[in-house]
Amino acid sequence: xxxxxxxxxxxxxxxxxxxxxxxxxxxxxxxxxxxxxxxxxxxxxxxxxxxxxxxxxxxxxxxxxxxxxxxxxxxxxxxxxxxxxxxxxxxxxxxxxxxxxxxxxxxxxxxxxxxxxxxxxxxxxxxxxxxxxxxxxxxxxxxxxxxxxxxxxxxxxxxxxxxxxxxxxxxxxxxxx
Length: 177
Hints:
By secondary structure, the chain is of the alpha/beta class. The longest helix is centred in the N-terminal third of the chain and has 13 residues, at 37-49.
């Protein structure tokens, strides 16, 4: 018997000073059985960094042909393709051919090693951005995970602050490309 996704709801208040974007979002996140709590929160942070009224979570891990998030225009064309992790060159280049803008958000201790090995292979991808999220401080992102979350996210000068009223975490957003 297959395991089912865990559903989490998030009320996310975003104040992105860098983009001048201020909005509240009511989000539903389906956590795949193989997805840990940290990755779930990183998907939420990716949403916060690129928030837009048309940005949406996809089937993600359940469908290898979809990113973690995407933004489509009214015709169905993909404006933004956002992947988390350390995708291979073939996946990134295919995404660059399908979308106007591709963003890879990497994280973890192996991220610099992955980027060093793949960066030369992605030189020709003109519509690609790569960013690394580095959690600072003592509060792990997993501490925020609940079935129903009320979160505030502030983005300013390459840093992201996440708070739920009881705890907060700082995440540095490092642009690799």
